[in-house]
Specification:
By secondary structure, this protein is an alpha+beta fold. It contains six helices and 17 strands. It has helices at residues 84-89, 151-162, 249-254, 283-303, 363-386, 393-424; strands at residues 10-13, 22-25, 48-50, 57-59, 65-66, 80-81, 98-103, 109-113, 129-133, 143-144, 181-213, 216-242, 264-265, 275-276, 311-339, 342-349, 355-357. α5 packs antiparallel against α6 (393-424).
Amino acid sequence: MRDIFPPPDYIPTESAVPGIEVFMPAPPAEDFHQEIVDFKCPQCGAATAYSAADGGLTCTHCGYYEAPQKPIVGRAAEQFEFTVETMARAAQGWGIVRKELNCQNCGAATSLPDDSLSAMCPFCGSNKVIQHLAPQDLLRPRFVLPFKITDAECTKIARQWLGNNWMLPADLSNIATLGAFTGIYLPYWTFDADLRADWKAEVGHTKTERYYDNGEWKTRTVVEWRWESGRVNLHIDDLLIPGSARLSQNLLNQIDNFDLSALSPYEPSYLAGLQAKAYDIPLEMAWETGRQVMREQVRQACLNQTSTPQVRNFNMNLDYANESWRYILLPVYVAHYTYEGKIYQALVNGQSGAIAGQRPVDWNKVWLAIVAILSPGILLGILGLLTMPFAGIGILIGGAGFLLLIIGVVIAVTLYMKADRMDDL
């Protein structure tokens, strides 16, 4: 009988001899793997639901309440190195039987409680969805940041947000009363690393010099380029990289003020009654994005060491060390609403209450405001032309009009760009 190689429960390890593969017994996985559990009320047997107020479990049928008993580990939460051993020991699945909702419109896959009857995608609002048993072959989250904001509080936050800007339609704040906020745990990767960069660049120093031209001395400004070099040591701590591409990165960046000091070890009970999103950006892709972000941070730190901001021929050699990662779940409320036939999306940080999203702009208001801003300069300019024959009065009025018009154009362009960003986020 032919032997199986490598033997079961063995993993690759470092070999001291090039070209020779060496295997070692896999470490025990009982600390990482947990049995799939479900949540039933010990009093009436009904499904329980997570309470955002304090993290406990509350029965939706008989009112039975179970206080939270989860420790908080915060930023001291265990991190993992990029090793074969780590990946081999990582647990998989949610640790609880759940359904998966696959949207046929946007392609998002969302994890639901096993007893959920939801038939709408939380990301695009489509009801073209298919439910099936959630797969258990992805990495299991190791830590979670519990919800602190309730859906009722989200409604209040959204009402204020949708009514606090004069460029918005007057009736838009009524949309917030719909309360269509879905609490969902989103996947995030966090990365730590120590970086060392040696840099070298030509740095420009501006100076004034005199020169002789056509029989007279004149002055001119020149840039003198000098080579400079330096070294930057930077520790990156808890760099957050989203684990899903289903939501706008721009919107997520606006609400990512999470306090990771409140991280708790992942327990399936945190998902009771809530939706969750498995990662669709795997660890390797997220780490590549993280490396690019880190590289830019180090590059800026190097440029900050130059004696002037004028730099050319910049070169940097960058080394990474002590890289580590964590897979965590962060609380976010997702809402979508329709206004005049167009779908808009809003996100609320489930811990801090920060909100970001798309808001329709009343362009009639915007154009009227732009006309009002430009009118004084235009009217003064016309008045200056009409009074031009009267000595220097026309020139004075025309000059004032031209100045007001320039200021008005700057303000109008800024206003237009702000409105355009608000409408198209």
